[in-house]
Input
Amino acid sequence: MTAALSADPPMPLLRMQGVSKRFDNVVALSGVALEVRRGEVHAICGENGAGKSTLMKILSGVYTPDEGEICIDGAPVRIAGLQQAQALGIVMIHQELNLVPHLSVAENIWLGREPRRGWFVDRERQREGARACLRRLGVDVDPDAQVSTLSIAQQQMVEIAKALSMQARLLIMDEPTSSLGEADATRMLRVVQDLKREGVGILYISHRLDELDHIVDRVTVLRDGRYIATLDWKRTSIAEIVGLMVGRELNQQFPPATRQPGAQLLLKVRGLQRDGVFGPVDFELRRGEILGFAGLVGAGRTEVARAIFGADPLDAGRIELDGQALDIRSPRDAIAAGIAYVSEDRKAHGLAVKMSVAHNITLANLGVLSSRLGFIDAARERETAETYIRRLGIRTPSPEQVARLLSGGNQQKIVIAKWLFRQARIILFDEPTRGIDVGARYAIYELMDQLAATGIGIIMISSDLPEIMGLTDRVAVFRQGQLAAMLETRHCSQQHVMHHASVGPAEPSEPPRVALATLS
Amino acid sequence: MNDRQKDLIQKFAALAGLLLLVIVFSLTSSAFFSVGNAMTVSLQVTSIVYLGIGATFVILTGGIDLSVGSVLALSGVVAGMLVKGGMPVAPAFVLGIGVGALCGAVNGLCVTRLKLPPFIATLGMMLVARGVALQLTDARAISGLGEAFGTLGNGALWRIEEIDAQGFPDVVFPGIPYPVLLMVALAIVATLLLRRTTLGRHIHAVGSNGEAARLSGVDVNRVTMFAYVTSGALAGLAGCVLMSRLVTAQPNEGVMYELDAIAAAVIGGTSLIGGVGTISGTLIGAFVIGVLRNGLNMNGVSSFTQQIIIGGVILVTVWIDQLRNRR
Output
């Protein structure tokens, strides 16, 4: 390299300047700048609504900007449409995977760009091309396997393989690890590092700031559609980034515990079992306690919770509430007993998205608001909804607002309000902060602590280890459908939990290499 | 703009369309705008409304009921046969409606227990019910059912007649036909049920997100059953009223009526995905179809052309609805 070249900063792969985008009268982006170098992993941080996805959609050709300049290799370009973005080597991997479940891996990778021989698809070339891309990623997936039979992690790898087959030079990854367990997330990050070494520029969006630590070179922070700062990862801290994202100093990620777990047993579970899925599982939950369910994805945590709630059938086991045996055959039985479930996927299982905020809050307990003939007292319903909207700080223009239009954090609060109104005594939270931005997370944590302080027993399933460590009193660690360990949170570390979840009991002095979330 | 306002605009658009039709037909045909013709249209629309209310319930839960046209025929035929066999008219009609409810219950069981897609379950019932109706009657109409059989369909409340100088009766006011009264009553009851009761709320919840409803403790199967049984019973009622109007039991009656019912609901803003829809909308939708048919008839437009126009109206209304909901 000559002296002149090394003195100048290298020409960036991508440079955006003064990019603005307006929808009707809402400014989604205003004057945003961004620069990605070859072989750089560049994270975009910002709360929901900060403009991250608008920015990504502009880059991938879904939206055209109102103002601003985009340069690739220093040459200004116009990106109109996905095809054009792909021609420039910009490929986006969406949070919701965009694969066709009933086609094979190879067919998905080449979808829309099938290699042909005459009028027909050249299946051999298709398969070989797919195999080559998968090999480059170091993943062991059969190109002929139907995508619907693959795990989420494998599907994500197929998405990346597809991006590679398009000769991606700039890869945009939106929350790539949000649906992965720790082990798969680790592999995923390793792939990112490999791509980086090959000179691919990577734009990385993630809510899990801690996982950025191992891979990210620089971070650009957006807030309310505006560019805030670009920081060198090595010279910044999570606290500083979070502070820039929310516009205020966030000293601690978790609220101080105000609850006092009692000695009184609330829930006692014995020999809970579902053949081939989990069990037998034994554990207890005390009044006012937050019990964490940790483990890798697929370890059976969600399945145990759903079985307790009656959402899935049970083959054996005994569930006692306050010393009384319960016969739970459906969610109705569980709800009647005072058990509530806040599901992982709000839009699929938790909310009636087309119904109003008020109607969602009262849905599980309409009987209380109705006359004997089943007529709902509209005034009391409104009053109830307003009470809970105020109490939980749900940000909505009115109780009549359709639930779909609210942010993730507010939707989560609606689901919690529903169960509070139902006077739940035990609430099972499944990944309560998934897809919820950092500022709103704190509010959810605070709420969970307050609920526990009123004597409610809480079980929290989480794949986010810092969350488990920061919030729970005890941790139940699951591994392959079994309860691997029951730990006092105070007396253990993330390494302990991770080790139980992935390998089994061992010397805590020998922290497992898989643990990615160990530093935070 | 919140959804309530959107809903109002949607309804207003349909209503404005209906008024526009009325104005246009009033200008093109002198006989159109009269009390007598208004009653005729209302009477013609009643069957669509009975079935449309049932369709709205079913579609709100995210289902579809293709069997109502055939169930209508079976119920009417059963009522007619019972009367022919010597049973008084009132209990015969009740049993006819019962047959409809039973068909609805079978549909509901197929959907909730056998987990058949609603389209398939009710398609099966459509063929079975029609076949049974034809089998029972040997495909022949049953006539000679007596005057009492025709009262429900042809009677009217507050009919005023005067005897003129020549001694002939002169109709001052045609009265409000019983089927129209029944339609109004049903629409009010159905509206109250959907908007004000727990059951109505649960119907919306099941259609909006069935799994979320189940996990909120809603008895999804019971709610779904209710929708199909109601649809079947209303089809039975429509059958009895229709056969009573004709004073004959016709096993071939009601072919394709299910499509009118679904069209009425859809024109009125009911979403085929479920969770969204109102009875007032369906009522407007039914009148759009009824006024179109009546007005086009009066203008001498052939029934084939009518079909083309109504098909076009359905496509355009739903397209406008899609435009509004996009973004």
Q: What stands out?
A: Residues 3-325 of chain B form a domain with the ABC transporter involved in vitamin B12 uptake, BtuC fold (CATH 1.10.3470). Chain B has one domain: 3-325.
